[in-house]
Each structure stands twice: as structure tokens, then as C-alpha cells.
Amino acid sequence: MHVVFEKFETNPEHSFFVNELNVKHFESPIHFHPQIEITYIIKGTGMCFAGESVQAYQPGEIVIIGDNIPHAFISNRDHYDIEKPRISRAINILFDKEMFGDTFLSMPENQFLNNIFSDAGRCIKISGKGSSELSGLITGLSTKKGFKRLDLLLQILYYMDSSEHKEYLNTPNLLYETNKKDMERINKVYEYVFANYFNNISLETIADISNLAPHSFCRYFKQRSKKTFSQFLAEVRVGQACKLLVENRKSVKDICYDVGYNHFSSFNKQFKSIMGTTALKYKKMYK
User: Fold this and answer.
1) Which of 11, 60, 113, 259 is the most exposed place for a label (fewest CB within 10 A)?
2) pLDDT tens, position by position, 138-177
């Protein structure tokens, strides 16, 4: 959990970084870098942490994350099952917006670049119908060279800016501190919650992991994540519930208890507050 700042070296023949991940599970800590990142999830499920947002991710989703915004994609627990190995696949694109230059960005034809770079500061997710054509462009990047490679990146950014299926993950104008000590501390909190969300997590336990008194931890977590710890825990649990509801193997009530709730009414209330619909209606959407 010591890696916080990540540095990417591009090939001398390329101006931006493209990498296809094919691993058992994603497990990077919360990290940041000066490049804008586009991640296309091809296979696997888990949780996406991006700025103040905590959401479950599914295959087919595409996320763009602004420069220096703390983020991570962490696979679900079932990806760690040795007896039933699973694969996680994704394509990452990282680039410096400065590579385009002020003159190029000031051209009226290229206003879409300024738009998407600004929106990336809030982090955007594109899924469903919106990601079908975009995913084809992203997968084609690895086979392109020279100008065709750069042209395809511009097409991807244009499509993201003009898409009607954009979902903003964060509120605007948020500033994130990237202090290494703070990032390591928040990583420990996130790691513990993701490994134990289905159990009772007391304030005293999580504060102890952070080496803080309970009241100090509450203040610290709210300042760093822009939300209370109880809100964060609810988002993780509801995110895991969404994944189980989509799989459609268990009843809503069983899923409620599987993700750490002791009372069905509390689960229903928090699910609707976060997702804007009931768990039962959400489940029926994916039948």
C-alpha cells in the first residue's frame, strides 16, 4: 500500500500510453497521476473509487478520470477464489492534455477537447448503449500506429464529449489533496472496508486502523472523501448488492444480509437513496 503516485513512460514512438490488462484481479491502491485516464472494463466486476465516488463496475463500462484525481479499480472477492479462478480484463489509456498544445486547443473545431478535459475533472462513466461504439474505438487503438493512432484517440474523446449516455460521478469544483501520508492512510481504510463490508464495522475499529481517535477519524475522513464514513460504507455495500442483483442468483432479502445489513428496512432505505430506485425494481431491470 505504499504506491501512491504513479509515473508512466510512453514508447518513444508514441505520445500517449495504452495498456491492456489481463489479470486474475485488479488490486491497485488508491493512486493518482498527472495524466488523464480512460479505462474500459472488458471483463470482471468490482468497485471503482474515483474522487468522492464509490460505484460498482461491470463489463462494458468506460470511465474517464481527470489528472491528479485519486482513483482505483478493485476486483470483487470472488476474483480471489483459487478454486474458481476468474479473469479481469481492461484497457487503460493515459495521456497528458498538454500534448495537444495551446494553439491546437484554442481552435474552434477542437472545443470538444476543452469540454471533455473539464468534464474529466468530475469523472465520467459511459455504459450501456453509449459504450458499444466507443468500446470498438478503444480496442482498435492497440493496432494503430502514427497519425492513425492519434486520430483514433481524438475520435474517442469526441465521442465521449458528444455522448448522451454520460454519467458524472462527482460534483464540480472539487479539490483533492495528494499528500502521500494521507493517501496511505485512506488506502488502509478502503482496503479494510472492501475486505470486510459484509461484517459489522465499528467506528472504533476503523479509527484504530487509521491510528486516530474516533472523533478525529470522522473529521479526517469527511475532509478527505467529502462524505461521512457511514455514507461511504453504505455506498460500498449497495454497490456490492447491485452486482449480486444483476447476477440474479439470490433473493433481495438474502442479498441484503450478504452485504452486511442486519435489517431489511435499512437496506431498502439506503439502496433507494443511493440508486434512486428500490432493490427489487433494480433486479427486474436486468432479468
Assistant:
1) 11
2) 999 988 989 999 999 999 999 999 999 999 998 776 555 5
Mean pLDDT of all residues in 95-113: 95
Q: How many Cα neighbours within 13 Å face the side chain of 211? A: 6
Q: What is the largest CA-CA distance in the chain?
A: 58
Please give the mean pLDDT across all residues of the chain.
86
Place of cell 483514433: 152
- Tell me which long-range contacts 114-121 makes (C-beta under 8 A, separation of at least 24): 115/161, 116/64, 116/157, 116/160, 116/161, 117/36, 117/66, 119/64, 119/161, 119/166, 119/168, 120/36, 120/64, 120/65, 120/66, 120/67, 121/66, 121/69, 121/170, 121/172, 121/174
Pick the CATH number of 197-285 from 1.10.287.3510, 1.10.10.60, 3.90.1520.10, 3.10.129.10: 1.10.10.60
CATH architecture entry for 17-168 = Sandwich (2.60)
Check whether 3 has a pLDDT greater than 50.
Answer: no
Cβ partners under 8 Å of residue 64, min gap 6: 36, 37, 38, 39, 116, 119, 120, 123, 124, 160
Evaluate if residue 78 carries a pLDDT over 60: yes
CA 105 to CA 112: how far, in whole Å? 9
- 279 vs 126: CA distance, rounded Å: 22
